[in-house]
Structures are given as structure tokens and as C-alpha cells.
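Protocol step 4 of 5: obtain the predicted structure for the target chain.
Materials: sequence only (see below). No template structures provided, no constraints applied. The aim of this step is simply to have a reference model before the mutagenesis design in step 5. Sequence pasted as it appears in the construct record:
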Amino acid sequence: MGKNKGLTDVEKFYLKRQRNWDDAGGFDVSENNEMESREQSRRLKRKRNVEENEIINSKNPPPEHCNRCKKDLILSYLWTSYGVAICDDCKVEHEGDYKCITKTDAKQIYLLKDVDLELRKPPLRFVLKKNPRNPKYGDMALFLECQVEERAYEVHGGFEGLEEARRLAAEKSNKRMLNKVKKEMNKIKKDLKDKEIFNTNYMKLQHQCIYGEESKISEDEYKQSCIQCGHVKKYSKF
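Step 4 output (C-alpha cells):
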């Protein structure tokens, strides 16, 4: 009984119908244990993330009214998760203004670094959630995009600074892409040249010259040229 401890119900059901677990196929216990360990670690991180938000909220009591509709702030996901005093009704009604963005997209779109998001004061709050594409991947850190945009303005010096940073980043990206294309083109040219040289040498090896008329170079030296490839053969007569 202790040997089967930690196995899933499917594995236990499968094991009942196998004479020898080691010889049976279908499950890798070590891989399953590793996945369980990863999932447990992610659950702990998500729990720690919730606890950190609760600690922050306990130190900063919510305002009485919603910043948008001015009604009593009774339920607010944005406040408990991101410290934004917007009620849930306004969040739903103005959903486009309070979109979440992954850490990867925040760094790429707004040209920010980890230190800008997590170390620059005040650090931006985020919520950890399972990756919807594949649960095996790490959890996603979701930031509030309006807060990320505001942080980008601080880092780059306003809207104009952010646009200039994006322009420079696009130029660097285009330059890298151009250099990559040039490198690939040079490689293709080299391959074609090597192939052409190989074909030429190969044809020379396979080619049997047919020489034309003999012509005299000096008193005892003569030459003949191949009528196909132009190869010149010189020889002497005594």
C-alpha cells in the first residue's frame, strides 16, 4: 500500500491490471513526481503572491468611493490586486481601460526591464495565474497595462520619449535583421561559388580535350588549343 502512495487514481487503476509495474508501459513515475513538484512550487508562489497583496492592502485601507463612478467602493478586484480604486462595475463597463498584460509583453511593448517593473519604487503589483496555453509552462505574471504604461513614461521621459525609444529599438531591430539577411546572402553566394568551382573542376576532369591545328611558337616549341575548353598544350619537337 505504501508503495502506491503518491500515485494518481489513473495510475493506481492501471497498476491493478499489470503483473509487473517495471515492465509495464504508459507512465513514468519519476516524471509524474517531477510535474507534481513543479505544480506544488507554483501553488506556493501563487499563495505567496496573494498573501503579499493582502499585506499591502492591510497597510493601505481602500478609499470610500470609486475614483470613476464615485459610488461606495464595496467590491474591487483592481484594488485588492493592483491598488487601483475602481469598483468591479466600472471595471466591467470600461474593460478596455483596465486590461492586464503579461510580463513578457510589458517588456517588449513598453521597452522595460525587470528592474523597471519590480525594483523601481514603487514596484508594480502583479497577479500570478496559470498559463492557459499549457499548464506545464510557468505561471504568468499579469500586470495592469495602464500602470505599466505610466511606468514606461517615467522611464523614457513621457510619451515622446517612449515613441523615440521605440523608433530607436525598431532601427536596431531592422539593422540586426539586415545584417542577418546579408550574412545569409553571403553564405548563399559562397555556396554557389564553391559549387560552380566544383562543377568546373569536375567538368575539366571528365572532359577529354580535342586539340586543333598545331602552331609553332619557337624553333623547336609548338602548341595546340582545345577547340572546346581552350586548354593549351605546349610541347617540343627535336
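Step 4 remarks: The mean pLDDT is 82. Strands lie at 100-102, 126-129, 140-144, 215-216, 221-225, 232-236.
Proceed to step 5.
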